[in-house]
Amino acid sequence: MTESNNQVCHPSLLDEQPSKVQCGGSESALENFPFPLEFSTMNDLPEIGVGCKDVFVTNPFYDHGMTSKVDPMECWGISKAHAQFIVDINEELEEAVEDAINAACARLQDVAGIKDGDFAGMFFSGHEIRRKLMEVLAEYITSDFNGRDFWSKDSKSAEENIQDATIGVPDVPEHTDIDSGFCSLPDVQMKRPQPETFVGLPLNRRITNYSPNHPDEQAAYERMQVVGFQIAETLMKKPRGTMAVGIQGHAYWVSPLDGMADLFCTSDYEPLTADNLNVFAVSGFDGQSADDLDQCRLAMEQWLRAPEYIDRDAALLDALVAKMFGALQPPGL
Fold this sequence. Notes:
Order of helices and strands: HEEEHHHHHHEHEEEEHEH
Strand order of the largest sheet: 8-7-6-5-9
Number of strands: 9
Largest sheet: 5 strands, antiparallel
Number of helices: 10
Radius of gyration: 21 Å
Helix content: 25-40%
Strand content: 5-15%
Shape: globular
């Protein structure tokens, strides 16, 4: 998890985590899940988590420094059952990769008449294929999960859960100032893409490995990207071709890229022409400092408070993305 502010998280009175969510009963345990799932490739292996209070959380039973146990509801606004699900799915992700490799090798060995797996074990030990498989599976399960009805518009936000859980608990700072690095936006909750506007196309929630050698820049980028997801969700409720304007002189919109919905921006939208080459994917920003990224995030948060829109030709926007990124829009869009 990446630290974004000097938040105090109160240690849980319980030392033990709840037992693992069983696969057969996971749907009821995940009722009203308050966040979309995301995945990050920042660390050695991909991890699944949620964006909460400008932090990418992969184990809600610990604070943002992963040093002290906490009550996940008090610290993150996440119930113990939901917190355990996040822990479990990360553990199962690694096991799923082992299962996939073992099953594939066994099938091929059977055809080839190979009776032992000694060479396979050596070949795949520490192999980059493990990371790649984990990344593919993480992208799959987060997209599939987010396209279903596990999370509800009626569920409380993380901030409301924290307020309920910390009534009477001292020394819990309030975070309502936009300049503090954490902005509560209860009326702009992330929700599922609406099929009538994007035909169920899942939003790309991959957390980009922006600057692994500069933790401050990586943290700033992740904070910005989480807010970018909120803008994308807001735009995906609108007709295709809707652009968010007034964000540091740029307009933002959502177009398909590699089978998923992605957020893009340009400063050249007045007028918008087919030869516009100044198009950027928010998931592909580079070369900006932590301060620059934080300023961009603050501008995004301000837009969420007072959104402004313009309408442009969706086909032209998709064509610009395809021209810049070599992508083909999916059938039916």
